[in-house]
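Lab notebook page, bench 4
Experiment: in silico fold of construct C2
Operator: M.H.
Input chain length: 67 residues
Purpose: comparison with the prior construct
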Amino acid sequence: MLDDYVAFNTIICKRDSQGRLRFMRRYHFEFSATGNERYNGTITLVGHKTLNIQLEPYRIVEDETVH
């Protein structure tokens, strides 16, 4: 994550897979694969479980020091 930036976007009540009422929270953050570009991502949690992670397509740079 860049700049330790995480934004709280949404909170709603939702039932989990056992039918219990839980908070669903969605967070927005920025990340970088190379340190030069910025990309957006979101993570959605229901209770303490991760429901969804979405990342913008990003370039993966192969580390030439690893052989």
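Observations: The chain is about 0% helix and 55% strand. The mean pLDDT is 84.
Next step: discuss at group meeting.
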